[in-house]
Amino acid sequence: MASGAGKADERRLAWVYLSRVVEGPCAALSALIESVGVVEAARAVRECELPESLRGPTRRRREIDSAADDLELIERIGGRVVTPDDPEWPAWRLLGLSQLEAGRDPDGAVPLVLWVRGPRSLLESSERALAVVGSRCSTGYGNRVTGEIAGDLAAQGWTIVSGAAFGVDAMAHRAALAVDGPTIAVLACGVDRPYPAQHERLLAEIADVGLVVSEYPPGTVARKHHFLARNRLIAAFADGVLVTEAGLRSGARNTVKWARRLGRPALAIPGPVTSAASTGCHRMIRDGEALLVTRTEEVIDEAGPLRLSLPGSAGTVPDTPEHLTGDEAAVFAALPAIGSRLPHELTGHCPLSLPAIRAALVALEIAGLVGLDETGWHRKALRKSGGR
């Protein structure tokens, strides 16, 4: 028993050491761990017995081994580290990240560990969740819509995931807390460093009843590129991403990009056509990056597991057409209702080889059922047939 416990401790220290060395996503290090195991990977980093792709990312901090101190600190503030060895690790939520191409998505790697504060299980809390994001300079309209929908969802048991930023993020968290619903704040810094500082009380409240999560070790200061990498986790932890209000240059669009790459539905609330605060939502809807929704029931219809049609709703994306059979039916069903996937990503969603998937996609394109853009293959919106 002691030997088993010692081995587990050795692995945990190795995970934490490597988390400190790279501080964020590192596809090359994840590949090394997958190949040789976390303990051997940690030894290789310490001794610089590494491929060229890892020497640069590990050069600055490979001699810093504060794993024991980091574990002591996180325990002292009432938190914990969750590694891929732990039952709480949300493996199925993060599976999509492991299937992204490292060259195309350098920040898309699976996190090495997750630093967590809060009493809930990360695995259970992310089983039915929606990410709600948007403008940091939200208007009264944006706050009201965010509060109503996030509050309704939380009251129905949905976990609200967001980034604890000013504006829409904070309103989404507060709406969940107001109905004693679950909420997860994903930070771009250490969980011991409230960011923004003005939200120290909000984050403390979330940590008391929900979860504050980060892939960055304690003490890590938020940097600009951390936020873009953080957004992939907001998308990954949820069944879909809802943007309630966003300007044209809103960072919420980056979270929507990650949702589409992961095959999650992206949803957007329209606003007044005269409001600059909603131009980002309108652009995403117009460009087909997000599906227009206006109420809680529509959000659940798109992001919920059953995808039941609402009474009286026309629906813009068909279920699998009845005339499709075989490979074409399987591939069409594997494409998300909103968003897109690349051929290699579809291999995880249907029991076909990559050549068979590519052949079926071409056939579906010729039939006018799917299209291809820079993000991948997607279903085309079809008009429902009917008499005049």
Instruction: Please state how the strands of the largest beta sheet are arranged side by side.
Output: 1-2-6-5-4-3-7-8-9
Residues in helix, %: 40-55%
Largest β sheet strand count, sense and barrel closure: 9 strands, mixed
pLDDT < 50 runs, ≥5 residues: 306-318, 383-388
User: What share of the residues does DSSP label as strand, in percent?
Assistant: 5-15%
Describe the protein's architecture and organization.
The protein is α/β, with parallel strands linked by helices and 388 residues long. Among the domains are: 151 residues, Rossmann fold (3-Layer(aba) Sandwich); 54 residues, Winged helix-like DNA-binding domain superfamily/Winged helix DNA-binding domain (Arc Repressor Mutant, subunit A, Orthogonal Bundle), CATH 1.10.10. The chain has 17 helices and eleven strands. The strands form two sheets. A nine-stranded mixed sheet has the order 1-2-6-5-4-3-7-8-9, with helices on both faces. Strands 10-11 form a two-stranded antiparallel ribbon. Belongs to the DprA/Smf family. This is DNA processing protein.
Secondary structure topology:
Elements: H1 2-22, H2 27-36, H3 38-46, H4 52-59, H5 67-76, E1 79-82, H6 91-98, E2 114-117, H7 122-125, E3 129-133, H8 140-155, E4 159-162, H9 168-178, E5 183-186, H10 200-209, E6 211-214, H11 224-236, E7 241-243, H12 252-261, E8 266-268, H13 279-286, E9 291-292, H14 296-303, H15 326-334, H16 343-346, H17 354-366, E10 370-373, E11 376-379
Parallel strand pairs: 3-4, 3-7, 4-5, 5-6, 7-8, 8-9
Antiparallel strand pairs: 1-2, 2-6, 10-11
Helix pairs in contact: 1-3, 1-5, 2-3, 8-9, 9-10, 11-12, 15-17
Protein name: DNA processing protein
Family: Belongs to the DprA/Smf family.
GO biological process, one term: DNA-mediated transformation
